[in-house]
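Thread: magnesium ion complex, take 2
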Amino acid sequence: MKALSLNGVTKAFGGLVAVNDATFAVETGAIHGLIGPNGAGKTTLFSLITGFYRPTAGRVELHGQDVTALSTSLRARKGLVRTFQGTVLFPDQSVDQNIANGLLAASQGSLRDWIIESSSYKHARQEEVERLLAFSRLTDLRHAAARDLSHGQQRVLGIAIALAAKPKVLLLDEPFTGMTASEKDRLVEMLQDIRRGGTTIVLVEHDMRTVMRLCDVITVLNFGRVLTEGTPEQVRRHPEVMSAYLGTAA
Ligand SMILES: Nc1ncnc2c1ncn2[C@@H]1O[C@H](COP(=O)(O)OP(=O)(O)OP(=O)(O)O)[C@@H](O)[C@H]1O
Ligand SMILES: [Mg+2]
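Output below.
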């Protein structure tokens, strides 16, 4: 079963075709890498998958259902959740308050205000905050203001907030950027745990060592087009992948 299927997805910004006829699928339960040089169209593709942008042409399916015309929030309710390339947090609020905000945001539209304010719901929410703090290994930092965390810890908190929405498919845009080696190791384990919990992951990442050790399948984008797709080993050996990266670095 495919978690995601893209068929001919295209996005033009005026004369610039940022994503050009992208066709590929993501298997349910996979960690699927999406790589390519700067400006290849990776973030734009995430925005098309999640509904921040409407495609100029093409179709996006989530678990076999056409979601191309659905809003971002409807797609989120179906389990399609993203993180952003930059860190998006409430910087002055504590770590646990940020996670609680994520839970509240995720429940909006599915629960009425009076349920949200009922004590049994508050209790359940508190338990979920505890679970997410422990899962992301942020329990010891729960009372710290988000802005006082290290860059890497802020990224992990961003993922914990995304997990509050109980994603079936989680799209991560460069989560490893700016992390220390040990923070990277910990995030690798966390993503493997998330996948073990049944969530499909699509990972945009420039850190090739991490992409290669984490992903089952990798799709390579170049100038908005799918250049190739395969296992990490196949992609590593593909001659055009190397030249695509060198070409933009020159
Ligand atoms: N809203 C927009 N309006 C116009 N052009 C855009 C817009 N968003 C992206 N682009 C252009 O589309 C192309 C793809 O950009 P995108 O951000 O998707 O690349 P990327 O693969 O995520 O790059 P990076 O690795 O640097 O994050 C770039 O040429 C970019 O300048
Ligand atoms: Mg990007």
